[in-house]
Amino acid sequence: MNDETLVPVAMIAAVSRNGVIGVDNKLPWHLPEDLKFFKRMTQAKPLVMGRKTFASIGRPLPGRINIVVTRDESFQHDGVRVCHDLESALLLADQQATIDASEEIMVMGGGEIYAQALRHASRIYLTEVDVDVDGDARFPELDESEWQEVQRVPGSPAEGQPAYSFVEYRRREE
Q1: What gap in Å lies between CA 87 and CA 72, rounded to an integer?
Q2: Would residue 1 count as lying in a domain?
Q3: Edge to edge, what strands does the sheet with 9-16 contain?
Q4: How many independent structural domains does the chain possess?
Q5: Within a domain: residue 4?
Q6: How far apart are CA 153 and CA 141, in angstroms?
Q7: 49: containing domain
Q8: Does a structural domain hold residue 3?
Q9: According to its UniProt record, in which pathway does this protein act (predicted)?
Q10: Which of 15, 26, 81, 104 is the most exposed place for a label (fewest CB within 10 A)?
Q11: What pTM did the predictor assign?
């Protein structure tokens, strides 16, 4: 738990060995099992995302409160709540999570939002993809003195897909 929210903040991403999470506002791979994992982990939880991440999806994700962080004061979209900074988005998500009895708030990108949210997070769910790719969005590097791996489950890649694992990290107790 962090100082600002009552409900724990978690981050969820798929990341390559070299830290890339996106290229041209798209995922650099197609892993159906990862998409199912994402849906299972985020269902019925408030989602916080940046505007570019929302644009890459193109619609609100069903069964979840969608909160979009943007500096664009005129941005609006049916089915989403808009905040103009991460702290406001996390407070709104915390209020909603408390009302809905959600166990955590999920931050789902992109790179700038992850970098800002890292200090708030107590859990990270990564799909670690065993490939190096070129890209323009990166996940922040985790400091091993602050984060501990608590679970690793190998994925089952289909023919032609890279190997990957579902990994959970928890912030170390101080």
Answers
A1: 16
A2: no
A3: 80-83, 66-69, 47-50, 105-107, 9-16, 123-129, 164-171, 147-154
A4: 1
A5: no
A6: 21
A7: 9-171
A8: no
A9: Cofactor biosynthesis; tetrahydrofolate biosynthesis; 5,6,7,8-tetrahydrofolate from 7,8-dihydrofolate: step 1/1
A10: 26
A11: 0.94
